[in-house]
Amino acid sequence: MRAVRANAPWIGAYVRDALGVGVVSAPGRSVLPVEALVGLALRRNPKRAHLLVSRVLAKHVPTEPGIACSAGLLLGLLVRAELRAPAAEPPSGGPTPPAPSLGAAIDDAAATLARLLASDAENPAENSFGYGTAAGDPGETRRARMASVTELCERLEGQRAELPGVVTIGYAETATGLGQLVAGQLGSYYIHSTREAASAEGLAPYGAFEEMHSHATSHQLLPTSRAALDLAETVVLVDDELSTGATLINTIRELHGTAPHGRYVVASLVDLRSPEDRGKLDALAVELGTRISAVALAHGTIQLPELLAADAAELIRSLPLPDAAAAVPGQVRLLDLNGLVPPVRSARFGIAGRPGPEQAAGIAAAVAAALGAGVTPGDRILVLATEEFMALPLAVAARLQELWPDTDVRYSTSTRSPIAVLDEPGYAVRSAVAFDSDDDAPDGPGPRFAYNFAHPDERFDTIVVMPEPGTLASQLTAPGKIAEAVAGSGAAVQLVLLPRQAPFPPPLAGPLFGSYSPEDVRWLLTDISSAQLEAPSAEREASIQSGKASYAESLPQEYEPSPEYGALFQAALESSAARLAHAVGTLTEQVLRLRENAPVLVSLARAGTPVGILMKRWARQVHGLDLPHYAISIVRGLGVDQAALGYLASRHDPEQIMFVDGWTGKGAITRELAAAVELFWKTDGAAFRPDLAVLADPGHCVRIFGTREDYLIPSACLNSTVSGLVSRTVFNKALIGPGDFHGAKYYSQLSRSDVSNDFLATVAAQFPAVRAEVLAASAAFPTRVEALPDADWSGWSAVEDISRRFGINNVNLVKPGVGETTRVLLRRVPWKVLVHPDASEDIAHVLHLAEQRGVEVLEVPDLAYSCVGLIHPLHTPGATGADGKAGVDV
After folding, report:
1. Rg of the chain's alpha carbons, rounded to an integer?
2. Sheet with 867-871: strands ordered across
3. Angle at 389 between CA 54 and CA 130, to 5 degrees
4. How far apart are CA 890 and CA 880, in angstroms?
5. Which of 726, 712, 713, 716 is nearest to 754 (CA)?
6. Residue spans of beta strands (DSSP E) within 486-590
7. What confidence score (pLDDT) does residue 529 get?
8. Residue pLDDT, tens place only, 441-458
9. Which residues are 382's β-sheet partners?
10. d(CA 608, CA 516)
11. 296 forms bridges with which residues in the sheet?
12. DSSP character for 726?
C-alpha cells in the first residue's frame, strides 16, 4: 500500500512561490478555471523558462483516458458553438456566446469535468499521480468515478456534428491527439503538423511554420490531399495552450498565402494571451480580409517576472539531482501485431476526423489477451504513447479501462521536451526517464523523455508502450532505448508493435484483386468487394435521373453473359483483332514519341485498362521497353481521383504521365480530365498534362488516337468479364475516406466467364502481323501534341442535335458510339438505339442486346456514329432540374 498524502497543494504552487510565476482565470470568459487545468514546471530551455503542465492533455501527467477525451470533446463543442456565430460578427479574441441549447450542454459538461478534476486533486488516493489508497473501499470509489467519467464522455459524444467545409489542424507534438478529438466532434477532415522529414515519405510539404519558443521549432504539413486543405472554407487550429499566439500568426499567414480561407478558429485548452497579443490576431484578420476568432476551456493571464529566465536557470542549477530509482527493473515483453491488425495511418498525412472504434478495440483486445492473468483488480496500468502518436493510444487506453473496470488505467506520452524534475509538493514533474531515439525516428535523433511514473508514489504495475506504427523492435529494446528506461521504473513493460500504413494506400494487383497479372497493371483503387452496392437498373436510373444519388455511389448488377452473347463476343474479337492490333500499335508509337520513349501509362478504369495493358505489351514486344502502368478512377462530376494523382506525383514525373482510355463518345471524360489536372495543379502544384490517348476517337474529342472509326472494340461488349473482373469505379463517402483511392469490386465469382486475358492474348497475337506497317507510318509521327490532328468536337455537336431531335433536351442521356451504346444496354434503362444503316456488321452484339431487352432500333442515315444509345428519360424534369442543370450521369 502506498502512503496517502492528504491536502496535496496545487501542482503549480512551487514555481509560483519560488519564482513568482502565477496564473489567474479571466472571470466570465472561462468554462473551467485555469488552475484546474494546469500546473507549473520549469523547462531546460533558454527560450522559455516556464512550462504549463496540463492535467487533461495526458502529455506529461498520466491521466485517466476518459478525462483526456472529455476535455478534447468539450473543446470541440466550443468550436462548434463558435462556428454557429453570425457571419457578420467582427473578429474577436474571445468566444461568441453559443446558442442556448448548445450553451447549456457546454455548461453542464464543463461543470461535471470541473467536479471530476476537483475531486481528483482533493483525493490523493485517486489523483492523477496515484498517491496511494484512501480509507474505505478503493475499488468502489474507483468504479463510481469511472462511471461518472464514462457518462461525461458519452454525453459529449452525443453532441457530435457534421460540419462541411471545415478542416482541423492539430499542432505537433503536444496537440496531435487533442486536435483529433476536436475534429471528431466536428466531423471534419483532420491533419496534424509534424517534424518528420518530407523526403522520407516522398511528399512535398504543403506549408511550414515556426514555433519559436519550442525545443524543436519547425513544423510542416504533409497532406496526401492538398485539395482537402485548399478547398476548405473554415480552418480550425488546435493547440494545448496559447501564450502569445505567435505560432498561430505564422501558421495563418502560411495557410492563407497558399489558399485563402474565409474563417479561422483557434482552439486551445488554455488561453493566456495578453490583450496586446489578442489584438495582433485581430489585426491579422483585418490585414488578410478574413475572420479569426479563438475559443478555450480556460482564459486567463500569466504573471512572468522580468528576470524569470535567469532566476529559473539558477534555480535549476541548484536543484539536487533526482535519486536513482530503487525499483527492480520490470520484465519486458513484446507484442507484435504486424499482420494481425490493419495498418495504422498517421494523421500527419490527413485522415477522417472520426475513425471508427473497431481499430482501437481490436488493439486493446490483443493487449488484454497478451497481459491476461497478469492484470489483477487494483493494479495500475499506464498506456505510454510516443511523441506525435497520441490519438489511437488514447483510444486504446479508454478501451482497456472498459475491459478492466477494477484497475486504474492511465495514459500519457513521451516527449522531446527536457523538463527540470523536482521531488517537491506543488511541483508538476516529480520524476523522469530518459532514453535515446533512433536516426529514423519521426522527428529526428536525440534524447527523449517520459514523466511522472518513476517516483515511488507514482509507479505503475504494468506499462504498455505504444510507439509509432512501423517501429522496429530493435529501436525499442537496445541499450539506452525506451524499453530499458521504462522498465527501470519497476513496472512490467509490454511493447506493442503496430503495422504502419504508407501515406498513400498501396496499389492493388492480381491475383488478390482482379484477374490481370501484377506485371500488366497496378490498380490505384480501394478494394470494396464486400460492399453491397448493386441495384436493379430501373432503381439506379430513377435515383440518378431524379438527382437523389450520383451514379458513382452504386453499381449496376453484373451478370454472366449468355452462350449466345459470348459467341457474338468471340466472333467480334476474331474479326477485329488485326484492326485492333494496328490501332494499339499506332497509339503506342504516338505516345512513345510524345513522352520520349519513357511514358508512364495511366489507364482510366475500367475501359482504359485493357488498352493500357495492350500498349504496355506492344512497347515490350516491339521495343523491349517495360513501361509502368496504373489504372485509376475518373468519376463524372468529381474528376480524376485526386489521391491517385498524388500517389503518381510522388513517384513519377507528372510530365511523363499519359492518360489512356478505350474510346470517346461525346468527350465528357476529356473535359473532366482537363479540369481535374488543372485542379490538382492549383492545389498540389504538380502539373500533369491533360493529354488523353484513346484507342478509338469517333467523337473527335482528342488528338492522340489509334483510329477515329466507330467500330466495335470487343472489350466494350462485356462488363467486368473482359476488364479483369473489376467493377466500374465507385466514389461513396460511406466507404471511401479522405486519402483513400476510389473504390471498385473484384468479382471473383465470375471467373468461369472471364475472357479478359483471352482478349489481350488474341489482340497481342496480331502484333507481328501489323508491326512493319505501324513502324513505317510512325516515322512521320510528331513529338509534340500540338502537331497532331485537331479535336473539332464534332461528336458533341452531333449529340446536342440528337438530344433536340428526339425531345430529350439532356445530352447526358445521349450515349454515342458503339462502346457507349453497349454500356447503355448493359447497365442503364435504354429507350431507343439509333443505328447507321451501313454499320450493322460491326454492331451485331448491339442489335442482339436491343432485341433481348425489347428496345426499339431506329435507322438514321445521317448518323455521325455507327450507333447511339438513348437512355430512357424516366425523370426528365428531375434529370434536368428546375434550375436547368443536368443531373449527374455516367
Report:
1. 32
2. 814-816, 867-871, 830-835, 856-859
3. 40
4. 14
5. 726
6. 492-497, 522-523, 526-527, 534-535, 555-556
7. 92
8. 555 678 999 999 998 888
9. 410, 463
10. 14
11. 268
12. B
pLDDT at 102 > cutoff 60: yes
Say which DSSP state 18 is in: H
Angle between helices 608-623 and 756-764 (to 10 degrees): 40
Nearest of 6, 39, 4, 25 to residue 122 by alpha carbon: 6
Dihedral over alpha carbons 191, 192, 195, 201 (to 10 degrees) = -20
Rounded Cα gap, residues 860 and 833, in angstroms: 10
Give me the sign of the Cα torsion angle 437, 443, 444, 450: negative
Neighbour-count burial for 743-775, b at 16+ CB within 10 Å, e otherwise = bbbbbeebeebbbbbebbebbbebbeebbeebe
Q: Which of these ranges, 385-389, 399-403, 591-595, 849-853, has the smallest mean pLDDT?
A: 849-853
Q: Read off the amino acid at residue 28.
A: G
What is the number of residues in the chain?
890
Residue 486: C-alpha distances to residues 449, 465, 875 (Å): 10, 9, 67
337, 500 contact by CB (below 8 A): no
DSSP conformation class of 158 = T
- CB neighbours (10 Å) of residue 316? 16
Backbone φ and ψ for 130, nearest 5 degrees, come out as: 70, 50
pLDDT at position 47 is: 67
Query: Rounded to whole angstroms, how far apart are CA atoms 264 and 83?
Result: 10
Which one-letter DSSP state was computed for residue 372?
Answer: G
> Is 154 exposed, middle or buried (CB count within 10 Å of its CB: 0-12, 13-18, 19+)?
exposed
13 is written with which cell numbers? 504552487
pTM of this structure: 0.78
User: What does the DSSP assignment read for 414-462?
Assistant: EBS--B-----TT-S---EEEEEPPTTSTT-SSEEEEESSSSTTT--SE
- Give residue for cell 437523389: 548
- 603 with 584: CB under 8 angstroms? no
Indicate the pairing of strand 856-859 with strand 830-835.
Answer: parallel
Instruction: Please tell me the predicted confidence (pLDDT) of residue 197.
Output: 66
pLDDT of the residue at 214: 46
Beta-strand runs (E) in 520-586: 522-523, 526-527, 534-535, 555-556
Extract the C-alpha cell encoding 97.
456566446
Query: Position 878: which residue type?
Result: G
Which of 322, 265, 576, 309 minimizes the C-alpha distance to 458? 322
pLDDT digits (tens, 9 = 90+) for 494-520: 999 999 988 888 899 999 999 999 999
Q: Which residues pair with 190 in a beta bridge?
A: 168, 351
C-alpha cell at 233: 472554407
Q: Which residues contact 229 (CB under 8 A, 6 or more apart)?
A: 167, 191, 206, 221, 223, 235, 255, 258, 259, 683
Check: CB of residue 193 under 8 Å from CB of residue 168: no
- Could you give phi then psi for residue 39, rounded to 5 degrees? -120, -165
Name the pLDDT band for 764 (thresholds 50, 70, 90): very high
Closest CA to 70 of 191, 142, 178, 145: 178
Alpha helices in 198-263 (DSSP H): 226-230, 246-258
Query: For residues 80 and 98, what is the distance between their CA atoms, to the nearest angstrom?
Result: 9
What is the DSSP annotation of 33-99? -HHHHEEEEEBS-TT--EEEEESSS-SSS-B-HHHHHHHHHHHHHHHHHHHTS-TTPPPBSSPPPPP
DSSP string, 317-367: HHSPPPPPP-SPPPPEEEEE-BTTBPPBPPGGG-EESS--THHHHHHHHHH
Here the cell at position 304 is 512572468
Q: Are 325 and 298 in contact (CB under 8 A)?
A: no
